[in-house]
Specification:
The protein has nine helices and eight strands. The protein has about 290 residues and is an alpha/beta fold.
């Protein structure tokens, strides 16, 4: 059978949101609320931001069980302006889907997913990528850490586990380097600051300032640490993409942008910390939401 030609991919990589981002996300959320009035989500919502992943998203969703460590699960896909069939494929495989009319960045899509999850009553939010690189089989150990109140934010670390794509030597070196930098800045020992496999208390996503349209993993992590949230890591295996190629762009350019986000976030959060009392959040007492979340 002749393989369907994939559409041209234009991914938003800038460090600041596009001027129309608020309008795009507001429209998408309004359409989602209209399609799903009085929505009540399960305690654990798996949020997947996907862009042109029609060939992969179905298999990714099929791997996620209905319960993880005895916690019921809802699947939520944020289609970040795909030009293929990502939305209908995700819906056929059991996910709720909120679709943006234009690609506005992975971070923008995730923040919209976090908001929908919180408004739907989620207690926990997990993230996976739409390309199949992260294995949901690693989520039960992560859920148990939150359920036992031993952590507020859990990262699946490929450095504690392994990376199947041994050709990505430069990127793996970057992962180790940035983990060392963030560990030094925050005083918390970390091995992987850019993993797409994460689990957190839902309220955390509403209290930590998030502004990055694309390079959002370190922003959320640094903000959480400097606000006193407890972060833990578990081993995971980063698999090869099911199909297609990475949307992250050139390794050097990605690394430079990632470094800028780390520096900017650290300075911003340190300034914010000086203006408010240092109170460590706990499971049943979340801080009030901050602007930009």
């Amino acid at each position: 059978m002749r393989r369907r030609q994939r559409p041209a991919v234009t991914t938003y990589h800038r460090l600041r949101e596009a001027p129309d981002t608020a309008a795009v996300t507001t429209q998408a959320r309004a359409a989602f609320v209209t399609a799903h009035p009085d929505l009540k989500l399960q305690p654990l919502v798996v949020v997947i931001a996907a862009y042109n992943e029609a060939d992969n998203i179905g298999a990714v969703l099929d791997e996620v069980p209905l319960q993880i460590a005895d916690v019921p699960v809802s699947l939520l896909v944020i289609d970040d302006g795909s030009t293929d069939d990502t939305t209908p494929v995700a819906e056929r495989h059991g996910a709720l889907v909120c679709t943006l009319r234009a690609n506005r960045g992975h971070g923008v899509a995730l923040r919209l997913g976090y908001r929908i999850a919180r408004e739907g009553g989620a207690q926990y939010i997990a993230t996976l990528d739409g390309d199949g690189q992260w294995d949901p089989a690693d989520l039960p150990a992560m859920v148990k850490l939150l359920e036992s109140a031993d952590a507020d934010f859990v990262i699946g670390s490929r450095q504690l586990g392994q990376t199947e794509n041994t050709e990505a030597l430069l990127r793996n070196t970057g992962v180790r380097f940035f983990a060392t930098v963030v560990s030094w800045l925050t005083g918390t020992q970390l091995t992987d600051t850019s993993s797409g496999l994460r689990l957190m208390r839902a309220g955390l996503t509403g209290t930590v300032t998030q502004t990055q349209p694309q390079y959002q993993t370190s922003e959320l992590l640094i903000g959480a640490l400097l606000q006193g949230y407890r972060v833990a890591e578990v081993p995971t295996v980063m698999r090869r993409r099911l199909s297609g190629t990475s949307r992250k762009g050139h390794n050097v350019a990605y690394g430079l942008r990632y470094a800028r986000v780390i520096a900017h976030t650290f300075v911003r959060e340190r300034r914010a910390a000086r203006s408010m009392p240092a109170v460590r959040p706990v499971a049943d007492s979340e801080p009030a939401p901050r602007p930009g979340s």
